[in-house]
Amino acid sequence: MTLFTLAALTLLLAGCAHRRPNTPLTQVDRTKGYYFHPNVRTNQSDDIVLALAFSGGGTRAAAFAYGVLEELRDTKLLKDGQRSLLNEVDVISAVSGGSVTAAAYGLYGDRVFEVLEPAFLKRNVQRTLILQTFNPLRWPALWSSTYGRSELAADYYDKILFHGATFEALRTNNSPFVVINGTDITSGARFDFTQHSFDLLCSDVRSYPIASAVAASSAVPGALTPITLQNFAGSCGCDLPDWFEPALAADHGRISRRADILHSYMDVTNHQYIHVVDGGVSDNVAVHPFIDYLLTIPLSPSRRQEMQQSRARKIVMISVNAYAQHDRDWDRHEEAPGSLKTATIAAGHTLDQRSLETSDYFKDGLNRLPEMVKLPSDVKLYPIFLSFTNFRDQDQANFYLNLPTSFFLPGTDVDKLREAGRELLRSDPGFQELLRDLGAVRSGPDTMTAR
């Protein structure tokens, strides 16, 4: 084969590689799109609203969240027979590693407990992706301007876990509403893969691959490339939510800034494409969707009415934060860490502090919710915030806080993380209070203390 022929073949192969496109939407239909509608799951109690937030953190986060799902599955509501508390979950917001577990549960339901561990949690995903990146047979595709390392990751996630499923599967299989969060790298703002956001792009999320959304949510800048969406704004008759106009008309702080960024998508000339990276860049604890909802309530008559007419009397929020804090001995030495290490750690500290402040901000918002909405006096909130710092034993906490952020951990560490999720939820005072109020009991075996 001549050099010219080889070069021509390489260019041809590169041209065949392309991102998975998002499809245009000709008409907004709020009865068919992937929207959050309260009480859409069957076999649920009317008086409970249960929301989960799964943080980023690679396999560490995915396994920790998985353990929480296991504990909810093994917690039974006695007055309703053998129905579990997991059946009561209405919405899961997730980012990066947590989005793997959330999307898998949304797709498989209770079968996730058979599928996720061998398919992902105990598979060396990271090694496979690295090997594929350095495989010369993959280079022509990776040289394409429309196919990058995140598309390669999406293809792999699809092969091992999602098997071609799109958001239409999440819409139709009686699962909780799953919010997979990424970051618009241009604005730095959160972008979620729901029809609420896709309406602004006049695009239909139902046909979009779940694997691509998960790849975007975990696309660490530098290591992975953005996932790109095309903007078709102006072609579907999209009506803006009722909170947009008051948010844009006056300064309401964060929610006005968010409305301004989302409204900019309507300018398709200057925003023809949206490039989405790791959701942890904007919110690594995945609670911003709930914060934004709370902040829009005073500006939205429809959301106030929705809250006031709700029959829910128990509102449960469980934040599963796989926060890490690695031990370092730099303060024992006169020599300072090098420039590259300092820059890397500084970025990590910024993300960690922002995550902790976000959690505090959300807790404050939940405390003020009864004032904002004038909830009935018999409505009770159960804010539950789980992290490894909740362990009383410092050695136990340090073990988890020092686990790396990667898409591979030894199987024994995965098992310990699952046990940690179960143990921390089971021992949380707010969760224990919820179980007493519901008359719920655990049916599963006790786990060993995670060490």
Task: Give a description of the structure.
This protein is an alpha/beta fold and 451 residues long. The chain has 18 helices and 12 strands. Strands 2, 4, 5, 6, 8, 9, 10 and 11 form an 8-stranded mixed beta sheet that branches. Helix 2 crosses helix 17 and helix 7 crosses helix 10. The radius of gyration is 22 Å and the shape is globular.
Helices, by number, come to: 18
State the separation between the terminal residues, measured CA to CA: 59 Å
How do the helices and strands follow one another from N- to C-terminus?
HEEHEEHHHHHHEEHEHEHHEHHEHEHHHE
What is the mean predicted local confidence, pLDDT? 86
Content-based structural category: alpha/beta
Weakly predicted, low-confidence segments:
3-15, 447-451
Q: What's the number of extended β-strand segments?
A: 12
Q: What portion of the residues fall into strands of 2 or more residues?
A: 5-15%
- The gross shape turns out to be globular
Specify Rg, calculated over alpha carbons.
22 Å
Biggest sheet, in brief?
8 strands, mixed
The percent of residues in helical segments reads 40-55%
Question: Which characteristics define this entry?
Answer:
12 strands; 14% strand; disordered C terminus; 451 residues; disordered N terminus; alpha/beta
Helix-strand blueprint:
Blueprint: H1 3-16, E1 23-24, E2 48-54, H2 58-73, E3 75-77, E4 89-95, H3 97-108, H4 112-121, H5 125-133, H6 139-142, H7 149-162, H8 167-172, E5 177-184, E6 189-192, H9 195-198, E7 203-204, H10 210-217, E8 227-230, H11 244-249, H12 254-264, E9 273-278, H13 288-296, H14 301-309, E10 314-321, H15 339-373, E11 380-387, H16 394-401, H17 411-427, H18 429-438, E12 440-442
Parallel strand pairs: 2-4, 2-10, 4-5, 10-11
Antiparallel strand pairs: 1-7, 3-12, 5-6, 5-9, 8-9
